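Worked problem 6 (solution included).
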Amino acid sequence: MIANLVQLAAGEEQNPLVPPGPELLVGTIAFAIVFFFLAKKLLPNINRVLEERREAIEGGMEKAEAAQVEAQSVLEQYRAQLAEARHEAARLRQEATEQGAAIIAEMRAEGQRQREEIVAAGHAQIEADRKAAASALRQDVGQLATDLAGKLVGESLEDHARQSRVIDRFLDELEEKAEAAR
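Solution. The predicted structure is:
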C-alpha cells in the first residue's frame, strides 16, 4: 500500500486490475500457505467425515433393508404359524366332533344293551313268576278238586301221591285242550 502511494505520488499511472509485484508475491505465498494447510489438515478431516457419513447412511440403508427383509421373513413365519394353528384347531374340532359322535354311539349301544338286559331280566322274572303262579294255582286247584271230589264221593281222598297224579293228569288234559284250541 505504501508502494501504491509512492507510485501515485510519482504520477505513474497503473492498471487497477493488476496488483503490484511485491503484493502479488506476498499474496501468492499466503495463498500457498492457506492452501497447503487446507489440503493437508482440513481437507482430509472433511473427507473422512464425509466418508463416515456416507458409510453411515449406506450402512443405515443396508440395515434398514436387512431389517425389512427380516421383518418380512418374520411376518411370513407368523402367517405360516397362524395358518398352522388354524389348521390344528380345525383338526382338533374335527377330532372332538368325531369323538363326541363315537361317545354318543357308544352310549346308545350301552343304553340299548342295558335295555335289552332289563327286558330279558323282566321276561325271566315274569316267566319265573308265571311258573310259580302256575305251580301254586295247580296245587290250589288240585286241593279244591280233591276236596270237591271227596265231598261228591263222600270219602276223603287223602293219598297225596295218587291225588297228585290225578290232578297232574287232569291239568295236562286241560292244557292240551287249550293248546289244541289255539
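Discussion: Helices lie at 2-10, 21-153, 160-181.
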